[in-house]
Amino acid sequence: MQLSVVIPAYNERHRLGPMLEAYVRYFDQTYGAEVEWIVVVNGSVDGTEDVVAPYAAVNPRVRLMVEPAAVGKGGAILIGARAARGDWVGFVDADGATPPEAFDDLVRHRQAGDCLIASRWLPGAVVEPRQPLARRVASRIFNFWVRWLFRVRISDTQCGAKCIRRAALETVLPRLGITQWAFDVDLLFQLRRAGYRIVERPTVWRDKAGSKVRVVRASIEMTLALVRLRLVYSRARWIVTAYDRLMSGGR
Questions:
Q1: Which of 103, 157, 182, 214 could in theory staple to 225 by disulfide, Cβ–Cβ 3.0 to 4.6 A?
Q2: How far is 32 from 25, CA to CA, in rounded Å?
Q3: Considering the chain, what is the average pLDDT of its residues?
Q4: Would you call 115 helix, strand, or coil by DSSP?
């Protein structure tokens, strides 16, 4: 098995079907049995798993994993990554915003580094339709804080498409604990700190109707997640430990 692709899915009943159909058809024609799909449905209440089940029933390379708890995108990726069997492990969002051809661009260039990530901000990237101004501004502010707090010189940490060498991923998996907005930052920070090479590729990204992201709320949550993560990797990590203990009732 050359490649395992993890698809985290939370209440994606209406968007996951077309995305999975397009990806499986494209990669089956291009790579055949060398690709497996691990769909991790977590915390869903809309029957998302019912969309995946028919694919898994007829295609042994499509694997469905159901986590009852809402563990977030990062938590779902961790579950899928631990079950992956490929020499490379990729993950991509369930909404289909990244078309199969764009994800395949990462796969085809995987020998250029240990981690290939899609970027919507590099020259040559295609984003359709153009994102609203508020979302673009929020993205650039977030990226500024990532660069300043973690010294990670990456233009787009949050794009959902990434492809990582299995050996590199296994090195950092035990260190990952942030499973919400800061998961991608934590992953890339750990890879860079371990000496692995991260390569960005301009991507094609097409916005899909049905997004559950609310810009103002998400911006606040993303900023708080970054601050928390920075504290975790500092001498002041005791603040996070004390806060977590307080919220858990001292247990």
A1: 182
A2: 10
A3: 89
A4: strand
CA distance 144 to 151: 10
Of 119, 180, 202, 189, the closest CA to residue 147 belongs to 189
Is residue 123 domain-resident? yes
DSSP character at residue 119: E
**What distances in angstroms separate CA 100 from CA 7, 126, 173, 203, 204, one per listed residue?**
13, 14, 26, 11, 10
Give dist(CA 24, CA 120) in Å, integer: 24
The closest alpha carbon to 194, from 175, 215, 172, 174, belongs to: 172
Terminus-to-terminus CA distance in the chain, angstroms? 43
Residue 164's pLDDT is what?
A: 98
Domain of 10, CATH number, reads: 3.90.550.10
pTM of the model as a whole: 0.89
Could you tell me if residue 29 is inside a domain? yes
Residue 75 CA, chain-centre distance (Å), reads 10
Give the containing element (helix H, strand E) for 66.
strand 62-67
